[in-house]
């Protein structure tokens, strides 16, 4: 299994409703992608204040394998949502942190 973690540092002028729409769109893509078995979106709730380095919201997607993850990455709808996410992030792509884990 591949756990695809994406953390976002949104621009301060991006309203919570826009953030929620982006995350909702990510969840809707997850519902139709083969091999995408779980989607979790939301705000960081860690009590370790300051450790998030401003990446206060994000999402985690679990894929059966790297092939399913790779199919998601090239999906046209994913790419459109990704472009909106980059546009809403502080400093564009620099405001997004992606980390994938191989889960046994």
From TrEMBL:
Official protein name in the record: Dabb family protein
Database matches in InterPro entries: Dabb (IPR013097), Dimeric_a/b-barrel (IPR011008)
Residues of the Stress-response A/B barrel domain: 2-101
Pfam assignment, any one: Dabb
Origin: domain of life: Bacteria
Gene3D superfamilies recorded: 3.30.70.100
Coiled coil: none
